[in-house]
């Protein structure tokens, strides 16, 4: 393999645990919402891709007593300024969601215990699908159910060694990644300092993102379009359950990859180069046919800095991301140079302007897509820009690991993660992706190997 790229292994295991209690956590003091009140959600909050829960897990080695009590009290306190988390989603007559408030709602905190130790879990630097039961799901819960669900579900699992995990499911309709980090940071700071601590002050303000009247759709928005699956790509991932693969990629390797394509275009970023390389390697490894089939690469772009009329307030924690989309046929990806694919990613990223974001809001208002579209698509989620480790210090130090668990339920998603533990400041990235077992070796070769002239083989 190339210097700076390491395939990470994780054990197949079962984590038996006992659930000791399931408790609603209500705001610690009165909130500015009464029974029967509702809050507006923007179309970015309510797009079909946001109607999901995002599961994450955080591991801690702490042996300090009173973990549950501290987490509960801090959560109740922070639910006062972040009171929308204590509501429920309700669908209105036109199919749009809003946050509704009723009696005794709150969020959910689950206490669990396992006789295993953290050492038994293997390498805690790489996400393992075996950790799934460290996050709570209701018995017989429907996939993608968000209506009438607690909008935050937390599970604290204590291990026999004294360490514990915090498994979270946060409804994406309430916040994007940046907003989730803002909420988590407030909860952690409140626990750590034993007093309510919110900085910045949370701001709802979803009305700023209302559609125009009449709506004005200025772009084709191919990121949302339904594409009949006339290729082998989606079938190869959904017919056979794929496996999750993770690679540790050094900062030096990322810089080298960027340098290979930087001369072809001004302003290429590390993300542009990495996303293009992963996309090409993935499509090539899957041997997608036919060669003239149109493929899509989608990824989220933070629109906060792009919104100026009016700008979002500092404490805004709602969805302010826009879906960028690069397109290419199979032949262009697998036979063309990496620099061409990188320029496609760069162009898609730069196309997300305030006008594009407003057009997205209006497109959803007019069309309101009802189903997730996977045809010919890979979605890359960039978590390296989130302060997951810094935000999750509840007073027991930074987590050993912070991030997602199992990508295989949506195998057309790839995640870029920061390196965890004490070493995440060096720019190392984890790339996690799903592949059929038969394609894993080919992907590893395409993604990792360099030739004798230090050039990419693909």
Order of neighbouring strands in the sheet with most strands = 1-10-16-15-13-11-12
Distance between the termini: 14 Å
Q: Tally of extended strands?
A: 16
Oligomer state of the chains in this structure: single chain
* DSSP strand content: 15-25%
What can be said about the biggest beta sheet?
7 strands, mixed
- Averaging pLDDT over every residue, what do you get? 92
Query: What is the general shape?
Result: globular
Q: How many helical stretches?
A: 10
Summarize the helix and strand pattern as letters. EEEEHEEEEEHHEHHEEHHHEHEEEH
Cα radius of gyration in angstroms: 22 Å
Helix/strand-derived category reads: alpha+beta
- Give the proportion of residues in helices: 10-25%
Ranges where pLDDT stays below 50 over 5 or more residues in a row are none
Short description:
The chain has helices spanning 67-78, 177-193, 233-238, 251-262, 270-286, 330-335, 338-350, 354-367, 388-391, 440-448, and strands at 5-8, 18-25, 38-40, 53-60, 88-91, 97-100, 107-114, 152-159, 164-171, 243-249, 294-302, 321-329, 377-382, 401-403, 413-418, 429-435.
Structural commentary:
With 458 residues, this protein is an alpha+beta fold. It is built from ten helices and 16 strands. It has helices at residues 67-78, 177-193, 233-238, 251-262, 270-286, 330-335, 338-350, 354-367, 388-391, 440-448; strands at 5-8, 18-25, 38-40, 53-60, 88-91, 97-100, 107-114, 152-159, 164-171, 243-249, 294-302, 321-329, 377-382, 401-403, 413-418, 429-435. The strands form three sheets. It has a seven-stranded mixed sheet with strand order 1-10-16-15-13-11-12. A six-stranded mixed sheet has the order 2-7-8-9-4-14. Strand 8 and strand 9 (164-171) form a beta hairpin. Helix 5 (270-286) crosses helix 7. The longest helix is centred in the middle third of the chain and has 17 residues, at 177-193. The relative contact order is 0.18.
């Amino acid at each position: 393999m190339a210097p700076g790229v390491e395939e990470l292994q994780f054990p197949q295991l079962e984590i038996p645990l006992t659930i000791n209690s399931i408790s609603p956590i209500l705001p610690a003091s009165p909130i500015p919402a009464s029974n029967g009140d509702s809050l507006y959600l923007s179309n970015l909050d309510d797009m079909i891709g946001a109607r999901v829960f995002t599961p994450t897990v955080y591991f801690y080695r702490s042996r300090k007593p009173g973990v549950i009590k501290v987490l509960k009290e801090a959560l109740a306190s922070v639910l006062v300024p972040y009171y929308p988390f204590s509501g429920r989603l309700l669908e209105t007559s036109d199919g749009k969601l809003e946050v509704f408030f009723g009696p005794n709602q709150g969020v959910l905190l689950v206490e669990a215990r396992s006789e295993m130790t953290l050492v038994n879990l293997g390498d805690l630097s790489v996400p393992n699908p075996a950790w799934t039961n460290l996050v709570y799901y209701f018995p017989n819960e429907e996939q993608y159910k968000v209506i009438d669900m607690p909008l935050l579900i937390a599970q604290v699992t204590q291990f026999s060694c004294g360490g514990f995990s915090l498994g979270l499911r946060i409804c994406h309709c309430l916040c994007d990644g940046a907003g989730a980090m803002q909420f988590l940071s407030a909860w952690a700071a409140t626990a750590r300092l034993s007093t309510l601590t919110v900085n910045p002050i949370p701001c709802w303000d979803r009305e700023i993102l209302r559609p125009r009247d009449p709506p004005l759709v200025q772009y084709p928005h191919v990121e949302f379009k339904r594409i009949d699956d006339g290729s082998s790509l989606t079938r190869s991932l959904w017919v056979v359950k794929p496996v999750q693969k993770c690679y540790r990629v050094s900062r030096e390797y990322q810089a080298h990859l960027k340098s290979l394509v930087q001369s072809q275009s001004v302003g290429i970023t590390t993300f542009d180069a990495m996303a293009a390389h992963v996309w090409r390697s993935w499509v090539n490894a899957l041997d997608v046919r036919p060669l003239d089939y149109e493929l899509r690469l989608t990824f989220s772009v933070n629109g906060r800095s792009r919104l100026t009329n009016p700008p979002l307030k500092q404490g805004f924690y709602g969805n302010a991301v826009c879906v960028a989309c690069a397109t290419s046929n199979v032949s262009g990806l697998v036979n063309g140079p990496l620099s061409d694919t990188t320029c496609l990613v760069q162009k898609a990223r730069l196309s997300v302007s305030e006008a594009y974001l407003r057009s997205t809001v209006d497109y959803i208002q007019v069309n309101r897509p009802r189903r997730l579209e996977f045809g010919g698509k890979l979605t890359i989620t960039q978590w390296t820009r989130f302060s997951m480790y810094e935000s999750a210090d509840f007073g027991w130090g930074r987590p050993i690991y912070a991030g997602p668990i199992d990508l295989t339920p949506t195998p057309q998603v790839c995640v870029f993660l920061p390196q965890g533990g004490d070493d995440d400041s060096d720019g190392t990235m984890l790339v996690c992706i799903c592949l059929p077992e038969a394609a894993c070796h080919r992907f590893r070769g395409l993604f990792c190997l360099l030739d004798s002239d230090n050039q990419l083989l693909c």
